[in-house]
Specification:
Layout: H1 3-24, H2 26-46, E1 54-60, H3 65-76, E2 80-85, H4 89-97, E3 103-107, H5 111-117, E4 123-128, H6 132-139, E5 164-169, H7 176-198, H8 200-206, H9 209-214, H10 220-248, H11 258-282, H12 286-303, H13 315-323, H14 325-339, H15 347-372
Parallel strand pairs: 1-2, 1-3, 4-5
Antiparallel strand pairs: 3-4
C-alpha cells in the first residue's frame, strides 16, 4: 500500500467516525434536514414584497352613495382592507398613532362638488410613512382609475386631478434611518440577550457549578430570576446607547415619552431573556445552545416586520409572527418613537410580551426541575 493509499484510508476512517457521531446526535441530524426545509418553505411562502391588504380606516364626511362606491373601488384593488370607521379626522389619526391602521381614507363633505369639477383630489389618503414599503404601496392608490359615474361629463375632456391626495405621516422625507434605527433596537437586543441567557444553564453544567448550586438553599425560581437579573441592566444600557446614536448621529426624533419607551423596552428585555433561558434548559452544551438560538433568529428577523412589511404576509405567517417577542416590540418602539404613541396605545402589544414572559419562565422552571430529576 502506497503512502497516498494509507493517507486516504485514514481520512476515510475519520470520516466514518464523524458520520457515526452525526448519526448518534439526533439534534444535529434534525437540523441537517429540518432547518433548510423549514426556512425554505416558511420564507418562500411568507416573504412577499407585493404588499396587499393594508389595514385601513375610513372617515366618510359626505355620506353619499358615490363616496361609498369610491371606498369599494379602493378595496377592490386589494391594496387595502377597511377594518375601521371613524367619526372624525382626529379619530382616524388616533388609529394611525396607535398602529391599528396603516392607511386612512378621508372623504370630505364636499366630495360631490370635487368629483363634479375635477380640479381637486376627491379624497385624502393618510399614510403611516414610517414604513417606506407601505408608503409606496399606498401611492398606487393616488391615481386610482375610479369610474366617473359621479363626474361632470362636460369636463371629461379636461385633465382631472388625482383621485386621492396623499399625506405621509411620521417620515415625510422618507429617510431610511428613521425607519431602520428604532427597529434595530429590537433586533440588537434579540441577538445579544437571547444568546447571553441561552448559554447560562449549560455553562454552569459544563463547568460543574450546577451541582454546587443544587446543594445550596437556592430555589429554582430564585436561580432563574438571578440568572437574568444582571442582563436587564445590560439591555437597558444597549437601549440607551442605540437611542443616543439614533438621535445624535442619524437624527431620528423621539416623538413619544422616554418613560413609556423604557417601560416598553423593559417588558421586551424580560421576554427576550426568558426566551434564552428556555433555550438553555433545552440544550445539552453551549454549542447546542448557540445553534438553537441561531435557528430562532431568522424567523424573528424575517417575520417580525423588520425587513418586510407585516401586512404583506399571509395569515399563517402572521399568526406565527404574533408568537415572537420581536414582532410586538417593533410595533411598540416604532409607535412610541415615530408616532408619539403612549403606553396605552401600544398596550395590545405589551400584554403578549407579558404573557410570553410568564409562559417562558414557567416552562424554564419546569424544564430545569425535570433535568434535575
Amino acid at each position: 500500500m502506497t503512502g497516498l493509499s494509507r493517507s486516504l484510508s485514514r481520512v476515510a476512517a475519520i470520516a466514518r467516525k464523524e458520520f457515526r457521531h452525526l448519526r448518534r446526535d439526533r439534534l444535529t441530524g434534525g437540523r441537517v434536514a429540518g432547518v433548510p426545509l423549514m426556512m425554505t418553505v416558511l420564507f418562500g411562502y411568507a416573504i412577499n414584497q407585493d404588499v396587499r391588504h393594508l389595514r385601513a380606516g375610513v372617515v366618510d364626511l359626505a355620506g353619499t352613495q358615490s363616496a361609498r362606491l369610491l371606498v369599494q373601488e379602493a378595496q377592490a384593488t386589494q391594496v387595502i382592507d377597511v377594518v375601521a370607521r371613524a367619526e372624525s379626522v382626529a379619530a382616524l389619526e388616533q388609529l394611525l398613532v396607535a398602529g391599528r391602521i396603516a392607511v386612512g381614507i378621508v372623504i370630505p363633505a364636499d366630495f360631490e362638488r370635487r368629483s363634479a369639477k375635477g380640479d381637486r383630489a376627491r379624497a385624502q389618503l393618510l399614510v403611516d410613512g414610517g414604513d417606506p414599503i407601505v408608503l409606496g404601496a399606498a401611492r398606487g392608490l393616488v391615481s386610482l382609475p375610479v369610474a366617473d359615474r359621479f363626474a361632470n361629463p362636460a369636463l371629461a375632456a379636461w385633465p382631472r386631478a388625482p383621485t386621492f391626495e396623499l399625506r405621509a405621516y411620521y417620515n415625510p422625507e422618507r429617510r431610511s434611518p428613521v425607519h431602520i434605527v428604532p427597529a434595530l433596537c429590537g433586533v440588537i437586543l434579540t441577538l445579544t440577550l437571547v444568546l447571553f441567557t441561552a448559554v447560562a444553564i449549560v455553562r454552569e453544567r459544563e463547568r460543574g457549578n450546577l451541582e454546587l448550586l443544587i446543594t445550596t438553599p437556592v430555589q429554582t425560581p430564585e436561580l432563574m430570576i438571578g440568572k437574568i437579573a444582571p442582563y436587564v441592566g445590560i439591555g437597558y444600557a444597549q437601549v440607551t446607547l442605540i437611542l443616543l446614536l439614533g438621535r445624535y448621529v442619524f437624527g431620528v426624533p423621539i416623538q413619544g415619552s422616554l418613560i413609556d419607551l423604557y417601560l416598553g423596552s423593559g417588558v421586551f428585555v424580560a421576554a427576550a431573556l426568558t426566551f434564552g433561558l428556555l433555550i438553555s434548559t433545552l440544550a445539552e452544551t453551549q454549542f447546542q445552545a448557540f445553534q438553537l438560538a441561531f435557528v430562532t433568529f431568522l424567523p424573528q428577523i424575517l417575520l417580525s416586520g423588520f425587513m418586510f412589511p407585516f401586512d404583506g404576509m399571509p395569515w399563517p405567517a402572521r399568526w406565527l409572527a404574533e408568537v415572537l417577542p420581536l414582532t410586538h416590540f417593533l410595533r411598540i418602539v416604532r409607535g412610541i418613537i415615530l408616532r408619539g404613541a403612549t403606553l396605552g396605545d401600544v398596550w395590545p402589544d405589551i400584554w403578549p410580551l407579558l404573557l410570553f414572559f410568564a409562559v417562558a419562565i414557567s416552562l424554564s422552571i419546569l424544564r430545569f426541575r425535570k433535568r434535575l430529576d
